[in-house]
Amino acid sequence: MPQAFLRVALLLLAAWSVSACTTLDGLQRRHIFQPTSEIAGTPSDFGFDYVEEWLPVPQAAAGAQPERINAWWMPGPSADACAILYLHGNGWNMGDSTYDTARLRRIGFAVLAIDYRGYGKSEGAFPSESQVYQDAQVGWDRLKQLQPDAARRFVYGHSLGGAIAIDLAARNPDIAGLIVEGSFTSMADMAHEVHGLGYLPIAWLLTQRFDSIAKIGSVKMPVLFVHGESDKVIPHSMSERLHAAAPQPKTLLLVPGAGHSSIAVVAWDRYRAALEGFTGKLGC
Q: Are 10 and 27 in contact (CB under 8 A)?
């Protein structure tokens, strides 16, 4: 059975059969989120010290079991180093993202990385859109404690983490700058343009929307968009549309030959210069 047809059959089954054991919401969450529990590496593998932290998530209801997300804090080369909250994508955890966070640390940033609930060692069941937004807020609140200077705090999101970062930025104007790498305009656009489901009533069926294109106009800080022109997961045109919809000041870096997760490998000098130039203009 063709994969696209199977996806449609599963969506329709979940949408219209009240006896289905798996809900439409559950199907979407399991298609979008792909949590992994194995920790493949740590910052120490790259020669950087780090502190493991456990951050409590506010309880959803009275009497609910408290949950905590796992975080790694990588202090910068100096006490006043600019700090970044790093938000990873849907199929990785902090261990898989260590290559990325170690690069940021090498450039000179302090880095706080978090795992959403259900990822890595973080507690909680299978995640949802609202939960990862809440987890990102917990991470941001912790970064504000670690770096008290509001002008030296940034947020960086890759792929799905970029959508989470945009939502966080729309709700927290005290972020000094936002960096979005290889992300998308909305989950509806991904369904239409990437997965070929445009013939379905997506607006009615979607429960996990990640509508970044509707939120990006509300951000109150400078934004740097970065995307590989050979990205086969998310087309770079989506970053171009996000950039067009974002208010000034904004910057777009498109990297020829780079895929979804290889920008820093393919064009390290351009990548580093873009980050240093963007944050340097803001005082780092």
A: yes
- Residue 122: Cβ within 10 Å count: 24
Burial category of 79 from C-beta neighbours within 10 Å (exposed 0-12, middle 13-18, buried 19 and up): exposed
pTM over 0.85: yes
Residue 86 CA to residue 97 CA, distance in Å, equals 9
Write the pLDDT tens digit of every residue in 235-245.
999 999 999 99
**Secondary structure of the chain as H, E, C letters:** CCHHHHHHHHHHHHHHCCCCCCCHHHHHHHHHCCCCCCCCCCHHHHCCCCEEEEEEECCCCCCCCCEEEEEEEECCCCCCCCEEEEECCCCCCCCCCHHHHHHHHHHCCEEEEECCCCCCCCCCCCCCHHHHHHHHHHHHHHHHHHCCCHHHEEEEEECHHHHHHHHHHHHCCCCCEEEEECCCCCHHHHHHHHCCCCCCCHHHHCCCCCCHHHHHHHCCCCEEEEEECCCCCCCHHHHHHHHHHCCCCEEEEEECCCCCCCHHHHCHHHHHHHHHHHHHHCCC
Maximum distance among all alpha carbons in the chain?
Answer: 59
* Residue pLDDT, tens place only, 239-267: 999 999 999 999 999 999 999 999 999 99
Is pLDDT at 10 greater than 60 in this prediction?
A: no
Which residues are known to be catalytic? 159, 231, 260
pLDDT score of 32:
92
Mean pLDDT across 139-162:
98
